[in-house]
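=== How it folds ===
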Amino acid sequence: MKSFARQRPVRAPLPAHLPRERVIIPAPCACPVCGGRLAKLGEDITETLEIVPRQWKVIQTVREKFSCRSCEKITQPPAPFHVIARARAGASLLAMILYAKFGQHQPLNRQSDVYAREGVELGRVHPGRLGGGLQRHAGTARRADRPSCPGRRPDPR
């Protein structure tokens, strides 16, 4: 009998029709361990969906991998910082989603529909996961007129 093995979900690629902007992080010129000459092995590409007010683009951050010919050590610059770990949305997109949700009171499913009409399919789950992650970072401030406990009225003073 074959044992059950959970498969990791595969992310859909970001839309191919969006313009790409390549940012190459410079790698060291010499091996940090022995100072020997480095040879390029390949590169890792991290794609981040970013928005310039109503202009969508994908920023590709390239981290080149090098190996030392002397000591066979592999070296690579660190990965770029993301506001929410493992998220594919950039800081300006996250700010726009937060503003629309909390400033304009637009539900995440409506935002997702608007983005789909603009050609960027985020899906229903993606903005919700972003919103939940953003609430942890933005803090959950309670409005003054909202009671802190269900069934309790606010103080009339």
